Amino acid sequence: MGFLKEVFRIAGIVAETAVYAVGTVAAWVGEKAVYLAGVARKAYNDYKQRNIPLEKRRNRSRLEDVNEQILDLQRKKRRDRSLNEYDQYELKRLKKERDRLIDESMEHYEAESAREIASSPGEFEDVEIDSSNLHIVQFHVGQTVSNKKCLCGRPMILQWQRGTTSASSFHDFFWGCSGYYSGECNRKQPFHASDARYFTKTSRPEFQLTSKQLSSIALAPVSQQLIQTRMNKLRNEVIEKYLCPEHGVELVLKPKKDAEGLLDLYFLGCPHWTPGGEGCSYVMKLKSPAQLASVLETTTGKGLL
Fold first, then answer.
1. φ and ψ at 73, to 5 degrees?
2. Which domain holds residue 211?
């Protein structure tokens, strides 16, 4: 389950609690909110003798090596139409190692989430989501999430329903298994009310507005120009807290050709994408002001406002 499993057990929070890479915990926290901050602080103090930044660098380096070896074998299979027995065994072994490395990466994000909660507890509060503040859910769409598992054991990703451009209810969101992108699992789970209570950083200016207010500000002509200027400076940059569900590496910010407005202009794609179509085709569209705020905050420390 990862680093925060013990935190949840001590705090009496359900095991399916989702932990986002931005330090948010999504669960029916309620009166446990203040207690959760204290538990996270103690857990992180017990844990911080480990050098998480160094572990992350080593993890990423090995993950890239493993991904390249897997891609080499997959190219060989396409070229030769089959693999010999040794290569088949090696491909299975490498995929198992990649799964382990991705789980390890999720544990690092959990540790960083606990550190963020522990270092600024006054900025985190328990927020219940309703139609007026659905942008808080939108802020987290596509982000790295741990402790929210599919029946197959893979992490699940919060997503929008296909074709949705403006979320208006919980039904516009769902949990999708990360195994969908490798063709190994296509399970989905609905987004329930129990997923919509967030222990999150309410000091974010965007979270102090309603969804309607945020959209109105972000889509004003002058605001759109400023946002595009800031986003364009990040083109082809790695966005750390969004991972490719298959390869486990950070996604890259890209502009879309022939876009129809700001909320159709940017997406995050896997760095293993190739022009020939043989690479990874995973894409996370940035189609809400809240998602743009999340990407900007992750990379520059400041959201839209």
1. -70, -35
2. 5-49+103-300
At position 79, the amino acid (one-letter code) is R
For residue 1, the model assigns a pLDDT of: 42
C-alpha 2/C-alpha 8 separation (Å) is 11
Note whether residue 246 is domain-resident: yes
Distance between CA atoms of 151 and 20, rounded to whole angstroms? 19
For residue 261, tell me if it sits in a domain: yes
**Angle between helices 221-232 and 289-300 in degrees, nearest 10:** 40
Q: Say which residue the tokens 């159709």 belong to.
A: 264
Name 145's Cβ contacts closer than 8 Å, sequence gap at least 6.
Answer: 18, 19, 20, 21, 155, 156, 157, 158
What is the band of 217 on the pLDDT scale with cuts at 50, 70, 90? very high
In a domain, 97, yes or no: no
**Which of the four pLDDT bands, split at 50, 70 and 90, describes residue 199?**
confident
pLDDT attached to residue 178: 84
Domain count, the chain: 1
CB 206 within 8 A of CB 305: yes
Indicate left, alpha or beta for 166 from its phi (over 0: left) and psi (-120 to 50: alpha).
Answer: beta
